[in-house]
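Hey Z.,

So I finally got round to the 2'-deoxyguanosine-5'-monophosphate thing we talked about over coffee. Here's the setup:
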Amino acid sequence: MADTIFTKIINREIPADIVYEDDRCLAFRDINPQAPVHLLIIPLKPIATLNDMTEADRELVGHLHLVAAKLAQDMGFAEDGYRVVMNCNRDGGQTVFHIHLHLLAGRIMGWPPFTDHAKAPV
Ligand code: DGP
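And the result:
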């Protein structure tokens, strides 16, 4: 797949406010935060979308979620709660084609997600 802005962040070619890293993933603050805490957790391995994951990625994707829960605990919002989201393709609102978990906290999240675009049922 083509390199994205996230590859440049992994390679330290552009700056980011990195809050966590290990041998499989990186977490940093979203440049356009939608909540008081808005982190992105990305695998070092570039995978374009949820649709591109394979069985080989099963453990990696589980790891991303464990890191989200660890950050929530370490940063003190695990008990109050938070939201973890992965957008996929156009209708899901994906804009960077390197999978990432959004970890949002620090405010009450609405449900269902806000919508202003009608679409025929699939
Ligand atoms: P999504 O729309 O789900 O693909 O989310 C992509 C997110 O990435 C979006 O919330 C904004 C964020 N983002 C895009 N470019 C950069 C960047 O250069 N640095 C940081 N920190 N975040 C970025």
